[in-house]
TrEMBL record:
GN (gene name): spoIIID
Alphabetized InterPro entries for the sequence: Spore_III_D, Tscrpt_reg_HTH_DeoR_CS
An example Gene Ontology molecular-function term: DNA binding
Protein name per UniProt: Sporulation transcriptional regulator SpoIIID
Superkingdom, taxonomy of origin: Bacteria
Keyword Transcription part of the UniProt annotation: yes
A Pfam family hit: SpoIIID
The entry's keywords: DNA-binding, Transcription, Transcription regulation
Bias type Basic and acidic residues, positions: 77-98
Disordered, as annotated region: 70-98
Length: 98
């Protein structure tokens, strides 16, 4: 969604708050860059709708505080999956290609 920057900023803000979305997730959903999302919600939205800006700021701050947890979970799942594939191959005596 390209559209007018002011309209886009408001839509991005509402989407982030309603879905507890990350900047990356909002960028993907709206087909814009992470830089555009960040500029829209941190500069434009602050000027256009200070109340919504404060709500968005809280969500993004929470996401920032939790990112190390999500990163750790992603790493855990990655290695669990790798271990699962390797142990599954051991039963047949073959290794799956990497």
């Amino acid at each position: 969604m390209k559209g007018l920057p002011e309209e886009r900023a408001a839509e991005l803000g509402r989407y982030i708050v309603e879905n507890r979305a990350t900047v990356r997730g909002a960028a993907k959903k709206f087909g814009v860059s992470k830089s555009t999302v960040h500029k829209d919600v941190s500069e434009r939205l602050k000027r256009l709708n200070p109340t919504l800006y404060q709500e968005v700021k809280k969500v993004l701050e929470q996401n920032k505080n939790e990112r190390h947890i999500r990163g750790g979970q992603a790493t855990k799942y990655k290695y669990e999956e790798m271990h699962h594939r390797e142990s599954g191959s051991a039963e047949t005596g073959e290794k799956e290609p990497a």
